[in-house]
Amino acid sequence: MASEQPTPISRHEALRPLSREHHFGLQLCWKIRRGFQKEVSAERIKAYCDWFYQRYLVPHFEIEEKYLFPIMGEGNDLVDRAISDHRQIEGFIREPTNLEEVLRSLEVVLNNHIRFEERVLFNEIQRVATDEQLDLMRKVHTHELKEEKYDDEFWG
């Protein structure tokens, strides 16, 4: 009997760029884990996380919070959870002490956050969004983030 593979999620084209950006976030989680496996200093890993946060997560969170999440309306529990995750991730980035513990927590929270958005929140947004709302998402998210080279590829 063949093992069943999970069915890929069908993502509306207006949300695909954000979903592709989630891939970069999952790569960050892997790089944090890999850095610790290779006994890279927490300071080097944190420097990369700071760089990644500014280049990738800040613009990604801004698009989600300004244009995507309002589709669900005020006081939506799923959106509240996502925004809470965003603030928690930001808090980890701003924390200057206990770097190893903070980075390990960041990896877990970011990974769980991305899985939640992909498996739950984005599906619900797709279900309730109007064509006009999705069209607006397509128009405002015109600059899809691309992978950039980082000078200290400690994970390699």
Structure commentary:
The protein is 69% helix and 0% strand. The chain is an all-alpha fold. The N and C termini lie far apart (38 Å). The mean pLDDT is 93.
- The portion of residues forming beta strands comes to under 5%
The end-to-end distance, rounded to whole angstroms, is 38 Å
Number of helices: 5
Approximate shape? elongated
Structural class: mainly alpha
The poorly predicted ranges are: none
Approximate helicity band: 55-70%
Measured on Cα atoms, how large is the radius of gyration?
A: 17 Å
The number of strands is 0
Mean pLDDT: 93
Q: What is the string of SSEs from the N terminus onward? A: HHHHH
**Largest β-sheet summary:** none
How many structural units, i.e. domains?
1
Mind sketching the topology for me?
Layout: H1 16-37, H2 42-68, H3 77-94, H4 99-128, H5 131-140
Task: Give the key terms.
69% helix, mainly alpha, 156 residues, single chain
Task: Describe the structure in brief.
The protein is mostly helical and 156 residues long. It contains five helices and no strands.
